[in-house]
Amino acid sequence: MLSFLRRNYDVWYPTEAPKQSDAIRIGLLGASKIAPIAVISAAKTHPEVFVAALAARDPKRATAYAKKYKIPIVHESYQALLDDPAIDAIYNPLSNGHHYEWTIKALQAGKHVFLEKPSVSNATEARKLYSSPLLSGPDSPVLLEALHYQFHPAWEKLLGLIDREKIFEAHASLILPKGVIALNDIRCKFDLAGGSLMETGAYPLSCIRKLFGTEPEKCLEVDHRKMPPGFDQKVDQAFSGKWRFPNGGVGTINTDMISDGGYFTSMLDGFPTLAWPKLEVKHREVFVESDMPSDQEHVVQKTIVMWNFVMPFIWHRIDIQETHTVRGKSEGTIVKEWVETSFLKEYRGKVGTDSWTTYRHQLEDFVNQIRRRPVGAWIDGSDSIKQMEMIDGAYEKAGLPVRPSIMGI
To answer: Per the omega criterion (within 30 degrees of 0), is the bond before 118 cis?
Structure first.
């Protein structure tokens, strides 16, 4: 308990590191709610990063935001921020519909881009963005889609425990309780590329792709719940899906960005749903060599569950369950069965402290990539394109329109 309290105190009240003279100067697009934990707090402990400037549509909000978070420069417009020669990198957490436009403009200005997920509105935009000549040169700017959980040591630990070829079922879920996202939030607007699959669903969807280590062969089935009457009916409030992968395994997800009770219906409708983000990986049975009678066989099936895979720095746990079965070879009659369970946690990586957040680990590799140093984890352009292709395919399977492009792409 003491380590939990100490770690989380350091997470929310980090000690600021002295900045190097050549620190990367980051500018924020918008006065967003996510930037304080995703960039501002993470940058405090990084000696090579300084949050130097901000631009927002509302000048008063921008000034208040800059004062609260001690950001020295407020620009009058997004473009003015991009035109600032003192800014090296841009953090883009704008509405999904504006990701492509302002990322391209930032790259044109020669800025590195730290881009919130989902990278863009649809797969067409993703292909156009990541195939841009602006990214093809040896000294081109760095572009990273911020799926932050993949940079934490707990995720690396989990991947080391699975055998991808033997996975026959993987499931990931992320549910936000009612009240976190308002019904009229920009994330609930179709024209701004909103929807649960785009927002909360991006995490479990990327999760099953990474667990299998490849792309699905086919989308088998999907289901969704639309926004309530009176709100945008082209937007999914909740989404579930099932995909078949090349090894024959099946990956499933469910997500809900405004959950009150159960996923679709519940006796608790009206009450916010509280549930840890969760993933579960079931492996096929494998035979165990042991001293068995000739007419018996010993098999083991491994199941791995990770609690809170999205924000593991707060708390997480990896459960490893191995179910052993001794059975007759001919009729399959069970002779003996037992379960062995172990629990793991992984807060400290190869670099940093156990209080480093997923965002801090992500920022570390973003800087390393800019400095042309080795990275521990990375999400490249082809990965981001495939993620958007999977999202588009799921929407089409559901009979929902693919999210539109503000740029007319």
So the answer is: yes
| 139-169 per-position pLDDT tens digit | 999 999 999 999 999 999 999 999 999 999 9
CA 46-39-48 angle, to 5 degrees, is 25
Q: Which of the 8 DSSP states describes residue 40?
A: I
User: CA separation (Å) from 261 to 128, 173, 204, 241, 264?
Assistant: 40, 15, 20, 20, 8
Closest CA to 255 of 230, 228, 283, 222: 222
Instruction: Decide: 142 and 366 in contact? Cβ < 8 Å.
Output: yes
The two three-digit tokens of residue 171, written as one number: 């499931």
DSSP for 98-156, please give it: GHHHHHHHHHHTT-EEEEESS-SSSHHHHHHHHT-GGGSSTTPPPEEEE-GGGGSHHHH
Angle between helix 99-108 and helix 123-130 axes, rounded to 10 deg: 10
User: What does pTM read for this prediction?
Assistant: 0.94
Task: Taking each helix axis as running N to C, give the angle between helix 381-398 and helix 202-212, from 0 to 180 degrees, rounded to the nearest 10.
Answer: 120
For residue 391, the surrounding DSSP H or E stretch is: helix 381-398
Query: Is the four-CA dihedral 183, 184, 189, 192 of positive or negative sign?
Result: negative
Strand order in the sheet with 89-92: 73-75, 49-55, 24-29, 89-92, 112-116, 143-146
- Please, what's the b/e burial string for 37-74 (b: 16 or more CB within 10 A of its CB; e: otherwise)? bbbbbbbbbbebbbbbbbbbeeeeebeebbeebebebb
Render pLDDT for 329-378 as a digit per residue (tens, 0 to 9).
Answer: 988 899 999 999 999 999 999 999 999 999 999 999 999 999 999 999 99
DSSP 97: G
For tokens 């391209």, the residue is 104
